[in-house]
Amino acid sequence: MVNQPLPQWRFRAMAPSEPNQNPIQGEFFSANLPERFIRESVQNSLDARAGREPVTVRFTIGGPERAVPVERTGRYLKGLQRHFEAVMRAESGSLAKDSDRRRELRSRVALLKEPLPFLIVEDFGTTGLQGDITANEIQAQGNDFWGFFRSIGISPKGEDAGGSWGLGKWVFPDASKLNAFLGVTRRTGETRFLLMGQAMLKLHELDGSKYPPVGFFAAGSKDDDRYWLPMPVESAGLRRRRGGVSEGAAACFVQAAMSEFGLRRAGEPGTSVVIPHPKDELTEPANLVRAAIRQYFHPIVAGDLVVEVAAPEEPTRRIDAATIVDEARRTGDGPEDDPEQRAEALIRAITLARWGNGQEDGLVEADARRKQPVIAADQVEQLRARYNDGRRLAFRVWSKVGGKSNSFTVLLEGDDSLDTGHDYYVRGHLHIPRMDYLTRHRARALIVVDNTSDLGHLLRDAEGPAHEKWRADAPRLKEKGWPAAAERVREVQNAAARILEALAEKPADVRRDALSDLFPADTGGRRGPGPARPGPSPIPSENRLSLRIHRVPGGFRLRPVGDQDPSGKTFEVRMAYDVARGTTTTALSRFDAGLRAGCPDFSLRNGQLHVQAEECEADVRSENELHLSVRGPDFSLGVTGFDERDLVVKVLPVEYATVEDHEEEVRTV
User: Fold this and answer.
1) Residue 159, Cβ neighbours under 10 Å: how many?
2) How confident is residue 554, by pLDDT bands cut at 50, 70 and 90?
3) CA distance linking residue 646 with residue 577, whole number of Å
């Protein structure tokens, strides 16, 4: 018989010389708690898929009815209380006595003496947390147990996985009012269960010692802190280790915990996570159902994923390919949904995805490269007629990564009921939600990239830890050495818009001023050859703007013309992405429409764009407008962070900004 210690919570005492650091993972996640909790937990399960059968992820809300009684909570909190209380005391010390935050902290400490409600996340059809449970190297490629419990900011996952930053597991302690969780896993090829837990608190002091934020619920040990490695409690022993109680007691602890929390894990491999005292947002079934549909409608429709949500005194809600539309309609909208995330909009996207699953043999070939026609000339008229007739279109769009051809899928349908386009981007199984590149067309698009392709790997490196957006300037693209990475990212982002523009254009209509878009010009000058267009009269020559626009990577820069000195002058600067047909006013109006719909093309307010001002002041007035006050003759104003679409920049002296008779504009590419 092997002896194994019973578990307890333990934090490793720090040496006085160790640097102080608090967790900052939360800074990387902007979605609300149910969204990010569902997103990251399901992603982990899909990355551990065992075969071709769908992965099932079940969320069980324990609720007060099933809470662990007070007399039995100690076995799951032993050792955690004193550290949790130390953190709460430290934070409360800097707060006013009657502050809401201090009252909240006191209420959290009180939870330790109350029954323990819980939230369970279990996956089926997965491999469990594979890998050597004793490993703790700097890198452990393929060791999921190490990645889940022993690394932060380092991922053991391969290139084909959805996650890659090693930060997504932060959602589990973040979901708990105690900032802690327990995990039970059974791995493929094994009969034992492994139980271990992790707490993510803050740096704190206790009894004269300093402790790090991370602690573990692990098998007890008499080892000195310097040599202590937290090990899981096993339902069956591996090999003899020092100290502890009989194997039977440890095995009984694991089995008792599984029964206490109602885990359904029996003979199947997979992982179950217990969230003690879940935060309030996660105890409402509709929040979990809504988030699951939003984040994972594509793999659900494809038959790769099933999500179940169970709560006391309610029938279990099963979201699969057959029920997803009914569940979306039953759950309805959230309180602050943007247009693309409302139930009816998602149902339309789900219907488009379902249609697209049967179009593999009927895909139209298209080219993502900007220097090539996106659609072959001999197909444009036929496709335009089909689109104008209200029929859906499916494209296989080609790009090149490192000289190798890669393709992705674009599904399109027109919808005149939309104020602005709705576009949904999916890499593998993962929905990339913060992407809006279809604002100029009343259409719906679903863009799907194969996660196992070179293009999928490149786009994975273009994402941040929250996997919410593809950034053409993401640092990891350069670190990984992807050739022409920014161009590849933008090709995928703008593929649907380019196809729609090709279908909307009429070849017989020739823009005589088209070439003027290719060259920066002095403000106030004519934009191209051909007869002058009727329109507003120019600003008088004595008040002509003394500015010139220069194209720079990702944006533009305004500078004085020659040796002219515009010091003391103030200008209104407005910007928008250009439109295929129309004037500067049309482009600005389209931007305003997107802003009213809650999805502007860009924003000067949210940090997406970068403003660099030298010898001038730039006062941001709206998402696409700033006031420029020139302070010196060598002033420079740069705005970057745009994608590669043609950009319209309109500049007016403030004294003429509201006079309709005067208009001056600058275009750049």
Assistant:
1) 12
2) confident
3) 6
The Cα 326–Cα 310 span in angstroms is 17
With beta carbons less than 8 A apart as the criterion, state whether 444 and 350 touch.
Answer: no
What would the pLDDT profile of 22-38 be if each residue is shown by its tens digit?
765 444 434 689 998 99
Q: What is the pLDDT of residues 378-419, one digit of tens each?
A: 999 999 999 999 999 999 999 999 999 999 999 999 999 998
Closest CA to 130 of 279, 273, 270, 275: 270
Nearest to 125 by CA among 227, 268, 8: 268
Closest CA to 204 of 95, 102, 93, 97: 93
Q: Is the dihedral of CA 402, 403, 405, 407 positive or negative?
A: positive
Residues 390 and 276 grouped into a single domain: no
The number of folded domains in the chain is: 3
Q: Is residue 320 part of a domain?
A: no
Helices 343-356 & 285-301 angle (0-180, nearest 10): 20
CA separation for the pair 492, 489 (Å, rounded): 6
State which residues form the domain around 206.
Answer: 3-16+34-222+230-283
**Domain co-membership, 95 together with 235:** yes
Last residue of a domain, one of 258, 283, 308: 283
Same domain, 421 and 472: yes
Q: Is pLDDT above 60 for 237?
A: no
In a domain, 118, yes or no: yes
Q: Which of 640, 647, 611 is nearest to 628 (CA)?
A: 611
Looking at the fold, whether 484 and 523 belong to one and the same domain comes out as no
Residue type, 108: R
Written as six digits, the tokens of 193 are 């269960």
